[in-house]
Amino acid sequence: MHSRHPLLWALVRAFPTSTSLEFENIREVPRYGLEAELDGHRIRLGRRAWCGLAQECNSDANMEIHLSYGAVMSARFTFSDALRSDAIETITDLMHSGFKVELLSGDLSRVVEQTAKALNIESWQAECLPADKAAHLSYLADSGHKVLMVGDGLNDAPCRVAAHISMSPANAADVSQVASDLIFQGKDLKPAFKSIRVARTAIRLVKQNFTLGILYNMCAVPLAMVGFVTPLIAAVAISSSSLVVTLNTLRLRILR
Asked: How far apart are alpha carbons 198 and 80 in whole angstroms?
């Protein structure tokens, strides 16, 4: 209950208890787990190696968290996760739009590999620390790529700084939302792709409006200077040009 990690909160929901234990020196170590002292013994809840277990357990579970009490390995909790309902469709749309999609995760290799295969993502990295993600995004940026990061990780704030722009769902951790440039509502991933479409369309409409304005002035101003345009015609023409630009801008709402 002293952590904001989604897996640890899953444990809180799975094992409700009214027992009050006197923990001391509670601290959370990013990407490793939670540590405290109980009755003079150190207790850790997190990654297997950090808790003292060197070898990986044979398990079909997607994710796991280990609990150690002193020098004893007390328990192992296993988790499974599900993709968002529209994740495959969204990733496919992004790829068809010319984006290269990569998957960076702190989860185990077998989990990330299964997820990448389900989403048809060829480039993926597993068991990444926040610094590893940030370094990779910086490398992509230095290589001339414009990087968009989408995620809800608690420890992904450094990665969001390294990316050109970042998005997160509304149910992400507070620190993740604060560091994001855009927050989308709902449980679906589709708004991430829709945001890109709206942004691209808006830029295209702005350029069209500038072009229409320039063409109008190139035609109307010379005619007005030589006296071919009466004040009434000029007033109608100015109003008409403003109306055309406004209607063209409203196409954004239709295209959405």
From this structure: 34
